[in-house]
Structures are given as C-alpha cells and as structure tokens.
Amino acid sequence: MRASRVSHTSVMLLAWTVALVVFFPIAWTVLTSFKTESSAIDASAMLHFQPTLSSYSEVFDRAQYVDYAINSLIVSVGATLLVAILAVPCAYSMAFHPARSTRGLLLWMLSTKMLPPVGVLMPMYILFRSMGLLDTRIGLILMDTLMNLPLAVWMLFTFFKEIPRDILEAGRMDGARVTDEIRHLLLPLALPGLASTSLLSLIFCWNEAFWSLTLTSSSAAPLAAFIASFSSPEGLFFAKLSAASTLAFAPILVLGWLGQRRLVRGLTFGAVK
Amino acid sequence: MATLQLQNVCKRYGAVDVIRDLSLDIADGEFIVFVGPSGCGKSTLIRMIAGLEEINSGALLIEGQRMNEVGPADRGLAMVFQSYALYPHMSVRENMSFALRLARVPRAERDRKVAEVARILHLEPHLDHKPGQLSGGQRQRVAIGRAIVRNPRIFLFDEPLSNLDAALRGQMRGELARLHEEIDATMIYVTHDQVEAMTMADRIVVLQAGRIEQVGTPLEIYRHPVNLFVAGFMGSPPMNQLPGQIVDCSNAGVRVELAGHVAVAIAATSRAVKMNDAVILGVRPEGLRLDPAGSLAGTIHLVERLGSISLIHVDLDQGSRVIAQVGATEDVRSRQRVTLTIEPVHCHVFDQTGRALMSLS
After folding, report:
1. Is B102 in contact with A175 (Cβ distance < 8 A)?
2. What is the value of pTM for the model shown?
3. Angstrom distances, CA of residue B140 to CA of A176, B56, B195, B343
4. Where are the alpha helices (DSSP H) in B51-102?
C-alpha cells in the first residue's frame, strides 16, 4: 500500500518535472513578449516587470502579421485536406483489401519519415524551381502533404483496422458500393480517428519550418518565416522576437489545447483497449 | 421466395480445400440448416452464397439464374450476422432503412416498411435508440428486422443466436420459426448447435471437412444416420458406439455379437457385410433400458439428473462405456451395479468404413 503510494508520488513528480521543462520555453517566450527590450535581458526582472504591449505594436508596425497568418492558415488547412483526401482511400484499401505487399508498403512509407529532410534539399529545391513552385502556397501545400501523408495513412490504417469487418460486409449486403461504404459507414465510425489525425497534421503543418524557410520567401511565407524575419537581421531583440513567436504559435497552441482529449486518444489508439 | 442450387462448388484458400465439390438443391420456402463442427466450412458456404466469398469453381443458381458473378447486394439475399453487425452510429430506424435508402426508396415508403417490421418484431419503442442502448435480444431482432425490410428472396443466418444466453436463445428459436411461417421465405441457417438444427429445420445438411455427409429431415438424420460421423454428431448425448462382430447374415437382417458374448439381432441389410466382419453397433441412450435380466452388466460412474429424465454413465464389464437414458424416478446412484438391455429397434450397424447398413424397417 505504502509502496504503491510512493511510486504514485514519484511518477507524479516526474510527470510534473517533464511538463515544466517542456512548458518553460513557452512560458519564458510569452513573458518576454510583454517586456521592454531592456528588461528582457535583465535576469533580475525575470518575473518582476511592468507588462507592456510595445513589442507587439512594433511587430505589427514592421511586418504584415496577417499576411503571414493567412498563408499559414491556407497552407495548413489545404495540406491537411489533401492529406485526408489521399490517406482515407489509401488506408481503406490497406486495411480492408490487404495485398501481400501491404505490410512492407506501410513500413516503407514510415521509413521515409526517418530521412532527414536536408538530405533531399537539393533535388527538392531544383524540382520546385523547375516546376515554378518556389514561393507559392500550392508548392508548400504539396510539400506539407508529402511530409504528413505517411503518418496519416498509418494512423487511419490503425483506426480502420479497429472497425469490425462484419459491419462493412453487412453494408455490402445492404447494397453499399465502395463509396457508400466509405461515406456512410467507415468515415462516421472512424470520425474520432479522422479528427485526431487531421488535428495532428494541422499542427505539424503549422509548425513546419525547414521547408517553409527554404521554399518560400515573401508571397507564400507562413508564420515560421515571420518569426525568422525577426531573428537574424535584428540581432538579439528578445522581446520583439518573443512577441512574434507568441503571435505565431498562439493559434495552434489554443487549437491543440482544445483538442487535446482527441489528440491523446488518437495517439494511443489501439495501444490500450 | 426462391429456389437455390449449388452445383459442384469448390472453395480453396491457397492449398487448403475448404469446400469440396459440393452440390445441393434448396426448395422454395424451405428452412435449411447447415450444421457441423467448427472448421467444417459451413460459414464459408453461407458466405459464398451471400457473395462475400468468391466461388472458385462450380455454380450458384438462384431461381435458375447463375449468380457467381453477381455482387452481394444484387442477389436478392439478406444476411443476419453472428455479431449482428449493426451500424453503431445509426438509430434502429436508420439501421433498418439503410438498404432502402441506398436503393433510393422514397422516404414515406421507407418509413412505412420500417414501421411494419418494427411492429412484427416488437421494436416500436426502440426505433430511435442506438444499438448500444439495446440488449442482446433486441439487437438480434434489429438485425433480423434489417433483413426483413429488404424483402429478400432468401434469408441467410450465420449462427445468429450464439451470442445469446440459453433462455433468450430458446425464445428466439421460437420467434424465428414463427417468422418463417409468417413470411414463408427460403431460409438458410448456419449453426453448430444441434438443438437449433433439430427444432427449426425442414431439412438439415450435416457438413464435415467441406463435404456434405448427409441431407435429410431432422428425424431422418436422427433415426437413420448414414455414417458414424453423423451418428456421433447429431443427438445429445451422442450415440453409444460398441465394437462387435457379424455372426449371422440373412435376408431378415444381421446378428452382431458384442464383447462378453452378448448378441443383438438387427433388421438391417446384410449386403455390405459378411460373416465375422468387425462392425460398430450404434445405440442411442434411449435404446438402452435398465433390466434386471439384461445382458450388459456394468457399474454406474455418473448420474446426470435432468429433471424429466436421468442419464446414467455406465462402465460395462466388457470394457466399453455407455450412456443410458432412464426415468427420473428411477433409483440410481454412482457406483451402483446395474444390468442393461439393448432395444434392437434403436440400433444401427456401421461397417468398417463407418457407413451405416441400411435399415430394413
């Protein structure tokens, strides 16, 4: 009894420590964004400072936050929609009409995620340039789709696998064609899975920085580029940089927080019954 | 309402033959039960009829028309699954009208049909409930309702009662039999439960290892099993099997001598056997009677009191073990010495290959 309480307490402590370590940079960024530049580098003013919105107003004055945000929104939502449109039929065929190669194909898809993106930087850049996709939203949507498709197929595959075959067969007896089966049976039944997959894809797209910075410059630049524009040329203006960062991650943080129940369920699906 | 023919159908999974060259004619309005041990291919067979499994060779005809290449929905069949397979996100009403919705039946007609079926199956109070809110028996009725609404030519049932408790199973058996009378449709029913087979079937098809062992009415199968497999599989408790030897063959029948010099004369054709052939004498528990002057002596090692009757398990002195059915009031106890008499009319003789000798009675 006592042993279990001790282990319970230590697990709680560990969880809190991890949570605080993860949360610290975010909290620090948000706090710093409300400071003046001088108090931002003053270690004694870590928590005691006069909050100000000056950094925010300066950030808004100097850069078109809304333009960047719209790009982020269009690219993330667009890529997520495209991912869903491609991943649903793909996972459907793998889950319900598996071939001998299905397992291998799934593993191969996942293995592409292990490749460091910088490894294909040159060919991708040249491809994008010759297809005229550099600095276009379409280009970035395609790139984000490619990045998130393997994970989405995997997640939907596991969700679909959980749906009893009998239900789909009953649908087939009732006269459902493949499209009816997907629309009336599979998607409603896998809705929680589809929602968490989409949410995760949305978060990954929003946070994606490597390709955003490489493949866009101005007209299609998302919020990652917005933050970057405040880091390099300006030197160490922590308060402004923090304000820009906060503006960039706030929307997705709120979305993630609202959907965390879904997200946890989605990520642990199949692991626990 | 339809006839169905299976002509030399085969099903293979890789190198495994699941259904081997099987042929069967099912008449219009018949209630056919496929019965057999697990793995005998009965579920595969019903799924082949449904169109959920491909037929490797042979033909499936419904109303004389070849159906091998026709999709499940266009065969005019409805199937009730073992797991019910209800659509969990739809209400009972939506579950039952789904097929009609897909077939673009106008809403008013859909509602009318669903209401009618709900009335037959006493589901009216539950029409707006989701399957998760229903009990097992109610779910089963929804699954049956979903099949009836489509007004199919043939109903297929794949072990529909196996998830229900014993009391409910008995009740649903009655309801299915009543339903069959009411709508007079052809029904094909798969089960491993011989009570279901015996009580509901017009004809029973006994399957083993992908082959038909015997087709017949329940009483035919019970009274005249064609081989040892059917004799052992149908009937609970199973038929007693005693090794013996032919000691006399004549036009009137055969005489079988069991170990311990007990001889029984049986009116069965002697064409397939000759003198001194080893045979198996099969006798149902009700064919063994307690008799102080009986020729089979032994010791009771177990008494099962079922209320209306009792079953006694007897270790015979000659080495075999048999189960006999006795009256409930009979005073029998474990370790009691008893003697039994075999009623020749309840006996069957099986030759060395397990085939039954045809009865002369």
Report:
1. yes
2. 0.80
3. 21, 32, 19, 43
4. 92-102
Domain segments of chain B as ranges: 4-232, 237-350
Distance from CA of B100 to the nearest CA of A (A): 8
Q: Which residues pair with B203 in a beta bridge?
A: B32
Q: Which amino acid is at A56?
A: Y
Instruction: Give dist(CA B182, CA A43) in Å, integer.
Output: 87
Q: Domain-by-domain residue ranges, chain A? A: 34-267
pLDDT tens digits, A22-54: 989 888 889 888 888 877 777 777 777 788 888
- Residue to mutate among B81, B100, B104, B110, with most A CBs inside 10 A, is B81
Contact A174, B99 (CB under 8 A): yes
Fold of B4-232: Rossmann fold (3.40.50)
Superfamily holding B237-350:
Nucleic acid-binding proteins (2.40.50.140)
Which residue of A165, A173, A180 to mutate against B (max B Cβ within 10 Å)? A173
> Exposed, middle or buried by CB within 10 Å (0-12, 13-18, 19+), for A106?
middle
Q: Which residues of A touch B51 (CB under 8 A)?
A: 172-173
Say if the Cβ atoms of B81 and A169 lie within 8 Å.
Answer: yes
A170 phi/psi in degrees, rounded to 5: -60, -40
ipTM of this model? 0.82
- Parallel, antiparallel or unpaired: strands B240-250 and B278-283: antiparallel
Q: Which CATH class is domain A34-267?
A: mainly alpha
Rg (CA), chain A: 23
